[in-house]
Design a protein that fits this description.
This protein is mostly helical. The chain is built from six helices and two strands.
């Protein structure tokens, strides 16, 4: 398995898809990187030679923020929002949707799948004691 940016790339997939296993690289960025490195999109990751692998490593590590650095940068920006007390920071603290979605419905996964539906409204008769 080729190892790029600390991630094992799957060998049996096309290199265009295999690069997306790296956090921070999607399909479009993968295509740009391969075009810059002059590597065929349809090659399998196992078919790359050492020179092509090194070229990909250099391009990704020097020109793009990926994996741990990107995660750290994301965490720092969220921490900054929380520290200054902005609306988005408060929403992050409360673990609610941040980007203006409605919360009366449709946030079951965020709220922990809470279901607050009411039954028929009739209580069962009290049992004799």
């Amino acid at each position: 398995m080729p190892r790029i940016a600390g991630v094992n790339i799957p060998e049996n997939k096309r290199i265009e898809i295999a690069l997306t296993y790296i956090y921070g690289i999607g399909r479009s960025l993968s295509a740009k990187i391969l075009k810059e490195a002059n590597i065929d999109f349809n090659l399998r990751a196992s078919q790359l030679n050492a020179e092509q692998t090194n070229k990909l490593k250099d391009i990704i590590e020097k020109k793009h923020i990926v994996e741990g650095d990107l995660r750290r940068e994301l965490m720092m920006s969220i921490k900054r929002l929380k520290d200054i007390g902005s609306w988005r920071g408060v929403r992050h603290i409360k673990k609610l949707p941040v980007r203006g979605q409605r919360t009366r419905t449709n946030t079951r996964t965020v709220r922990g799948n809470v279901r607050k539906t009411v039954g028929s409204g009739r209580k069962p008769p009290a049992e004799p004691t």
